[in-house]
Amino acid sequence: MRTARAPRGASVRCRRASLSTTTSRNMQSSSWSDHAAKYANNGNGLTLPLLLAALAHITPALDALAAQRAPQPLRILTTCGGPGVEAVLLCKHFGGKHVNILSTDNAEGMVQLARDSFEKEGLQDIAEARVLDAMKLDLPDQSYDAVLQLLGPMLLPDARASFAEATRVLTPGGVFCALTPGRMVIHDVMTSAKRGVLEKAGRGDEFQDLYSHRIMSEWGTPPKLKEQLEKCSAFAKVEAANAPAEMPVSSEAHLDEILQSLWDNPGMAFMYTSNLSEEQVAEFRAAVRKEMLKRRAESGKETWGAEMLGNVVCAWTAEK
Ligand SMILES: C[S@@+](CC[C@H](N)C(=O)[O-])C[C@H]1O[C@@H](n2cnc3c(N)ncnc32)[C@H](O)[C@@H]1O
Questions:
Q1: Domains, the chain, ranges and CATH?
Q2: Could you report the per-residue pLDDT of 35-44, keeping only the tens digit for each?
Q3: The whole model's pTM is what?
Q4: Of the ranges 20-34, 81-95, 146-160, 219-233, which one carries the lowest mean pLDDT score?
Q5: Maximum CA pair distance of the chain?
Q6: Which residues pair with residue 75 across a beta bridge?
Q7: Of 142, 163, 259, 280, which is least surrounded by CB within 10 A?
């Protein structure tokens, strides 16, 4: 794949912004580890449609790199790779061969699940999982053709450090791909439920609209995601797009499964329930459930597809 060269004299490192460090326990690796199994079992309801939509955007760039690399296998690194869902999907995309994937995450529990999944799928020869912090990768320079960070950048205290690390480990002309969540029906419903709970408790002034939270205000649209990547001068070309998806809700029981995945997701807990009492959390959950069932009934469809938007970006390092 032809990519433009980086501007003359451009630094090969990214400028690091002083983004605030998240200290909430909900966002620590121990918390992701504790919730790993539940996230992996139930999380697919929420994240799989987004991952599939994002991979549909990303795979043409990977296919092009794979063709350049052939007969050598394409070397892919995933950071914030969680239980390895995208790694398995990518192995399958490449027909279980011509690819080597290292799936990394800083939560040991997630990495163990990724290993189990690779073994279960018979992918141990081409997929490996390792505990690594996306912001400090213990990997050699220029050792990967592609680095993917799906549903990760918006959770990191210093995402630009992770972009700098990605550009360091990428080969010249390699690609970095990221996915962040955008506007979604489920977020609209949860935002409104949260407002209701806080207002009822006389704490309406504490309400923070999700869309003004830094997770959305800095990462929630393709232009915002592109802007973040463009601050990294080591990328020669950056392309961003929306990845539209739908979260299928087929029955009340199915909705409960999906909602359970949200309650088990430390990122969601951090955004929505970290400042609520137990009673208020129960109230919040009941309100979300009720509204989702109402919307499904109004759709008139047995399986209602709640709209989701992902933001995908592909950024190429300069060729030699
Ligand atoms: C929302 S999950 C996404 C997982 C996977 N990419 C997916 O879409 O299913 C975010 C993941 O980022 C991981 N994570 C958070 N901070 C990290 C860091 N500093 N380095 C590596 N992984 C991190 C969490 O442990 C969690 O598994």
A1: 25-183+211-246+308-317 (3.40.50.150)
A2: 777 666 655 6
A3: 0.88
A4: 20-34
A5: 65
A6: 100
A7: 142
